[in-house]
Amino acid sequence: MVGSASLRASHGICVIFASFLIAALLLVMPLPDWLEYCRPEWMALAVIYWTMALPHRFGLIGAWLLGFFVDVLEGSLLGLNGLVLALVAYLVLSLYQRLRMFTMLQQAATVFMLVGLHQLVSFWVLIVSNQNTSPNLMFLVSAVTSAVIWPLIFYFLRYLRRSFRVM
Amino acid sequence: MTINKSLFIQSSAQGYRLLALVLASLVLMFADNRFGYLSQVRFYASYSVAPMHYISELPHSVSQRVGDMFKSRDELLEENRQLQEEILLQQYQLQKIDHLTAENQRLNELLNASAIVEDIVVRAQLVVESPDPFRKQVLINRGSIHGVYEGQPVLDADGLFGQVVSLEPYYSWVQLITDPQHSTPVQINRNGIRAVVSGTQGSVHEMLMNNMTSNADIEVGDILVTSGLGQRFPAGYKVGVITNIIRDPGQPFARVTVEPTAQLDRSRNLLLVF
């Protein structure tokens, strides 16, 4: 009993890690130009799920480190994705009790708000650092697609979590 | 249960943690943006993402290889014939160019000007475009171990493509010449007027010529080549063609639109100039 219980503490790290790797791959997967705006924020979705499901294991620091990795991957400003992903993780940590009770529609709406905030903050930072001065609101499109695809992500990751008993 | 699953995550501790992380991010971003202290950090960290780039490149290279495998003999013969024709045409043009370069060299020597140096070019392939649609950057499959350096000019078959802005061991990021943060020193081929063209927010097919007075001798259709000033790009590479000139008497400068000759959104095969 003791053996199986102590095994559990680090159990399923591989599953979490693999899901983040897949998210990172989807993040840089080549897309046609007109679809570029619609790319869901895969990493933010994965962070939202794991923070919501396992708030005692995955939190701010994990999200921040993940963001650093995303910055290197995308070649964006170092620290930018760390900032926004930590922010998202923080909000989920303060919401997770409610998020779990929500219906799928309510969850998707919350995801829309969270990813929208994620996009807005990174947009601000990019403008302040002179990397982007484009005046339109197209960056919010990916918040919509993220919310639309959320149920799929949720059920997929929950299936993974349950079948590998990650807790 | 050995895991301490408390019902509530302590929120005050989380708040301080968030504050610390936000501060850390701000410091990082400031250092990265203003001083470039972190290019070494990024360089070493990018070893970890090289496999990701490799995998994201896979579908294209695999589909190309599979496509090559299943090409029919007729298609190959047809392609071969077309390529032969192209080579013939280009050899014919090259003969003239050889003659012209030799003549040019002689004239330059007469004028005591510096000799024209042949540029060495190395082929590179585009791996991915920047996932951020607001930034016009692409990743190419040549990095510092291949001798790529920051600021290196990149061409495609039709003209100037961009320059290397950030290095990784096996890959490097290239900023396109139409990125709003990029400016290229150019010269009009017809009369030698020097100017600077800058990228724009919108499409990849549009650049603007800065500070051209309304009475400057420019026409629609003028070809722009790199002037070699600014010591970044070697002189004489094609940059773009003037597509539109608006001379508004109320404005001090004309609004001159330039279309890049390079196929910025289509080329996969690029050339690095050494």
Features:
heterodimer, A: 167 residues, mainly alpha, 7 helices, globular, B: 274 residues, alpha+beta, Thrombin, subunit H, 2 domains, six-stranded antiparallel beta barrel, six-stranded antiparallel barrel, 4 helices, 33% helix
Number of strands of chain A: 0
Helical residues, percent of chain B: 25-40%
Looking at the overall shape, the CATH architecture of the largest domain in chain B is: Beta Barrel
Task: Report mean pLDDT of chain A, rounded to a whole number.
Answer: 87
Form type of chain B: globular
For the termini of chain A, the CA-CA separation is 17 Å
- Widest sheet: strand ordering of chain B: 1-2-5-4-3-12
Strand content bin of chain A: under 5%
List SSEs of chain B in N-to-C order: HHHHEEEEEEEEEEEE
Overall structural domain count of chain A: 1
Low-confidence region ranges of chain B: none
Radius of gyration of chain A: 16 Å
Structural class of chain B: alpha+beta
- Count of separate DSSP helical elements of chain B: 4
Order of helices and strands of chain A: HHHHHHH
The major pleated sheet of chain A works out as: none
Percent range of helical residues of chain A: over 70%
The major pleated sheet of chain B works out as:
6 strands, antiparallel, barrel
Overall SS class of chain A: mainly alpha
Report the mean per-residue pLDDT of chain B as an integer.
85
